[in-house]
Amino acid sequence: MSDQEEKQPDPYMNIDPLRDTYREKIAEAAGRTHSLQRHNTALLCIDMQYLDAAPGFGVFADADSSGLPPESQAYYFDRLESLVLPNVRRLQEAFRANRLEVVHTRIQSLTQDGRDRGPGHKRLNLHAPPGSKEAEFLPIIAPHGDEIVINKTASGVFTSTNLEYVLRNLGITGLFVVGVYSNECVSTAVRDACDLGFYVTLISDGIATVTPELQQATDTTMKDRYARLMDTEEALSEIEGVFL
To answer: Are 240 and 103 in contact (CB under 8 A)?
Structure first.
């Protein structure tokens, strides 16, 4: 390989040409750099349930007909089990220890036959009836006590439920967001929350999707435009710095 070939720049290094502009105009602008001290902050846990986050159930009941190649499924569940679920659990424990709200969303219909589902979920055959295994939260990150659970039948939890109303009633102005899938329900929630005026922090190692490319695209798109991007250790340090 020639020296010229070796020095070819990575075409993905500057995939976001407006990165610095957004960081200056939004992320570091007055009113956008508040810490937890300036916000009543909740942890928003999105769709961490058997329907879409457990092998052998729901979307993955039949691995061969899930529409995802084996390598994508392996990547997704490895990321969930080795990284995301332990991190979400740690964040939940930190929020609970400091008497901060932990709010859970899940896909669950009002009816057993799912006739109330949104058109998108009907088209994709996403269905978790009340009382079904698919509607259950994964045990490691399940709600505690009377933590709030918001049921939804569409991708966007803000547009299809009363979540905003509930958060306003609680006085919540900031959200730390975790869950699945990064590029679908999670990113929709982040965008909508930002547009509604919430100060959003997306936990980069607390979310998962089915390919590393989609994960990277989510991180790149969300960062500084719609949310701070922070890993679990940084989030825990911020919580500790404010409350301890």
So the answer is: no
The DSSP result for 135-185, as a single string, is GSBPGGG---TT--EEEESSS-HHHHSSHHHHHHHHT--EEEEEEE-IIII
List, for residues 48-72, the tens digit of each pLDDT value: 999 999 999 999 998 777 678 889 9
pLDDT tens column, 192-207: 999 999 999 999 999 9
C-beta separation of 196 from 174 below 8 A:
no
So where are the chain's domains? 37-243
Looking at the DSSP bridge assignments, the partners of residue 107 are 152
pLDDT value of residue 14: 56
State pLDDT tens for residues 93-139: 999 999 999 999 999 999 999 999 999 999 999 999 999 999 999 99
Provide, rounded to the nearest whole percent, the portion of the chain with pLDDT above 90. Answer: 76
Length of the chain: 244
For the beta carbon of residue 116, count every other beta carbon within 10 angstroms: 11
Q: Which residues partner with 106 through β-bridges?
A: 151
CATH topology of domain 37-243: Rossmann fold (3.40.50)
Asked whether 25 and 158 are in contact (CB, 8 A), the reply is: no
Q: What is the pTM of this model?
A: 0.87
- CB-based contact 203:177 (threshold 8 Å): yes
Closest CA relative to residue 152, chosen from 195, 194, 103, 200: 103
CB 175 within 8 Å of CB 164: no
Beta bridge partners of 195: none
Q: Token pair for residue 31?
A: 């009113």
Cβ–Cβ < 8 Å for 99, 20: no
